[in-house]
Design goal:
- This protein has three domains: 218 residues, Class II aldolase/adducin N-terminal domain (L-fuculose-1-phosphate Aldolase, 3-Layer(aba) Sandwich); 162 residues, Class II aldolase/adducin N-terminal domain (L-fuculose-1-phosphate Aldolase, 3-Layer(aba) Sandwich); 196 residues, NAD(P)-binding Rossmann-like Domain (Rossmann fold).
- It has 656 residues and is α/β, with parallel strands linked by helices.
- 43% of the residues lie in helices and 14% in strands.
- Strands 3-2-1-4-7-6-5 form a seven-stranded mixed sheet, sandwiched between helices. Strands 14-13-12-15-16-17-18 form a seven-stranded parallel sheet, sandwiched between helices.
- The protein is elongated.
- The relative contact order is 0.07.
- The longest helix has 26 residues.
Length: 656
């Protein structure tokens, strides 16, 4: 575990006060995924502030709910009344919901984030800085038959080893009772079995470096005892596998209650694990830490035979788990697995959106490593299912269910956009991700979006093999396709038919018409398994109103328009909508180069400025205007519309 402390970086902070130092060292912890995953872990610092009356008040700045240590800033450490939290720690009992209410009452700023559920424990530890992580190496050792003994031998009397107990008030009470007669000056840390590790000191650097030291000892132990080698294998998915993923996504989404994302991980590590003889049994013993159940459920699924059968098998396992451990106040969550072993191929992850998919993938990856390390130390022994259930169905998590979070309309949906590098295509990508979709962006040119919800793939859509390869990549990353925006195109140089060159004609037909057929043809099998599947073809004003000198373009676009109409007739029985838009005079696209714009304006005897606003509304249009209409056509607002042709041209007299 690398020690990232850098005095130079710290000295360069604008204000080196305790909170600034706390932010700095918290981000160092958060930078290590083997210490902290997706909101896990928490840190604090004690200090003094002047209240509104000018009186000194002892406070605890503790990580607030919703903040991640990797990116936390000062507002993520809401100040709370230290004495109030310490008084709460003296109570004999306190329910979780009442504890959260009291934590908000302890805030000095009522608009601040809710303090961590471990705030009372942080308040009871008599040191200025407190660091808490879910260090993989420490928890892995504790998840083995002799974990407690190993950790005791490893750390000696400098670290207190405590049995697992639920987070929150009961954990604070456990630590308080266990340390009642302890000399804190002789204690370096506290290990909570199956949960994590605390370090503390009045100096931030010492507390941080103690964390690094203790975790490094655990990592070194794993390496010395044969836990460094992980199973690895090479895998290439087949056409049948992609069909499986597409159908799995459809059935799983129906179980979840809406569109979801599915990712198939065929990395050498994931494939190696999936080829272990007992891979499924290992993955179903339980996660690395119990808090992972909130994101990934208590155990994995087995994927191999048939997606519907495999999901039904998991549903039955989950229902049995729920019935065995639940009581009257529990409301059963959805029965969709969040991760599973794809036999001999790799791992499959599922989630409602891209952010949660990343969380599930990270949790699964860390868990698979820990499982194999644990097996090398005598066997992977996660917490019993009743303890995992207690966290998954924690009172605080159940309360979140009742808040009824609203999903964005396109959340969980996968869109495919061709010609995505610029102009209308790029605007459609940006509009769709804003609406909640993930987007597979295709273009022969390099693309830069800077957004995790976009999968850019360089692809010549005139080549069927490149389209198939791009779809395979999209299926592996997201599990399916729901929406297609077929946009790729070019505008050949103006030429009368008499002097039209074969090459110009053939290039226009290949890109402006045939490529759309190839993309649609390849997408249809996956659209059939999509959620509210819909296609929008980007046509042209030249379809209803062609102009002289544009035969190659106009004829190709007219053929494309017929393709869209036939597709609407053929695909309607599968619930797939196909509509067209006919833009005109969208001047921020690659088609409208300065040369083309000048030529077309001259053809009509107009200045470029007049040509730009030559429509009934006298309005200049841009790519975002087209993207807004495209997104609307893909939405539920047009769920009963197919075969339509919509002009986006500010009103063209010839079209009207």
């Amino acid at each position: 575990m690398k020690n990232r402390w850098n005095r130079k970086e710290l000295s360069e902070l604008a204000d080196v006060d305790p909170v600034a130092v706390r932010v700095y060292s918290s981000q160092l912890l958060g930078a290590e995924s083997d210490l902290v995953l997706h909101g896990g872990g928490n840190t604090s610092v004690k200090g003094v502030v002047d209240d509104v009356f000018g009186e000194k008040t002892d406070v605890l700045y503790v990580k607030g709910s919703g903040w991640d240590l990797r990116t936390i800033e000062a507002p993520g450490f809401p100040p709370t009344r230290l004495s109030y939290l310490q008084q709460l720690g003296q109570l004999s009992q306190l329910s979780d919901s009442e504890m959260m209410r009291q934590l908000r009452l302890a805030l000095l700023d009522p608009s601040g984030p809710t303090p961590s559920v471990e705030a009372i424990l942080h308040a009871l530890i008599p040191h200025t800085y407190v660091d808490h992580s879910h260090a993989d190496a420490v928890v892995t050792i504790s998840n083995t038959p002799k974990g407690k003994e190993i950790l005791t031998d490893l750390y000696g009397s400098e670290v207190l080893i405590l049995p697992y107990i639920m987070p929150g008030f009961v954990l604070a009470k456990q630590v308080a009772e266990a340390t009642a007669a302890v000399d804190w000056s002789q204690l370096k840390g506290i290990v909570l079995l199956h949960h994590g590790i605390f370090t503390f000191h009045d100096d931030a650097q010492t507390s941080y470096e103690t964390m690094i030291e203790l975790v490094s000892k655990a990592e070194d132990y794993l390496a010395r005892h044969g836990a460094a080698q992980l199973a690895q294998a090479d895998v290439t998915l087949s056409a049948a596998d992609f069909d499986y993923l597409s159908r799995l996504r459809k059935f799983a989404g129906e179980s979840f209650g809406g569109p979801i994302l599915v990712r198939c991980d065929t990395s050498r590590e994931a494939a190696g694990f999936a080829r272990l003889e007992n891979a499924v049994e290992l993955a179903q013993r339980g996660p690395l830490t119990p808090d992972h159940t909130i994101h990934a459920k208590a155990f994995a699924a087995a994927f191999d035979v048939d997606p519907q059968q495999d999901l039904e098998a998991f549903r039955q396992l989950y229902q049995d788990y729920f019935q065995q451990h639940s009581s009257a106040e529990h409301q059963m969550l959805d029965t969709m697995p969040r991760y599973g072993v794809f036999k001999d191929r790799g791992m499959i992850y599922m989630a409602a959106n891209q952010k949660r998919l990343g969380i599930v993938a990270d949790i699964s990856t860390h868990t698979l490593t820990a499982i194999q390390h644990g097996e090398a130390l005598g066997g992977w022994t996660a917490l019993p299912q009743q303890d995992l259930f207690a966290v998954e169905y924690w009172e605080l998590e159940q309360a979140k269910l009742k808040s009824g979070n609203q999903r964005a309309e396109f959340e969980g949906k996968v869109a495919l956009v061709s010609g995505a590098a610029s102009g209308i295509g790029k605007a459609c990508v940006e509009s769709l991700i804003t609406a909640g979709a993930v987007v597979v962006a295709l273009d022969i040119k390099e693309m830069v979006f800077g957004h995790s919800s976009v999968l850019p793939i360089n692809c010549d859509v005139t080549q069927a093999d490149q389209i198939q390869a791009a779809l395979a990549q999209a299926l592996q990353e997201f599990g399916g396709i729901d929406l297609v925006v077929s946009n790729a195109g070019c505008f050949p140089s103006s030429s009368p038919i008499e002097s039209l060159e074969d090459e110009s004609w053939e290039q226009s037909v290949a890109l402006n018409m045939s490529s759309h057929m190839k993309l649609l043809r390849a997408s249809i099998p996956f659209l059939k398994n999509g959620f509210d599947p819909s296609v929008v073809i980007i046509g042209s004003k030249n379809v209803p109103a062609p102009g002289p000198g544009a035969a190659a373009y106009s004829v190709a676009k007219a053929g494309l328009n017929q393709l869209a109409r036939v597709a609407a007739l053929e695909l309607g029985s599968f619930g797939i909508r196909v509509n067209s838009v006919h833009p005109n005079a969208i001047y921020d696209t690659a088609i409208w180069t300065d040369e083309v714009l000048t030529q077309r304006a001259a053809h009509y005897g107009m200045s470029v400025e007049d040509y730009r606003a030559a429509n009934v509304l006298g309005a200049e249009l841009n790519s975002a205007d087209v993207a807004a209409v495209v997104t609307s056509l893909l939405s539920q607002a047009f769920s009963k519309t197919t075969g339509a042709q919509v002009a986006i041209d500010g009103g063209n007299e010839r079209v009207i």
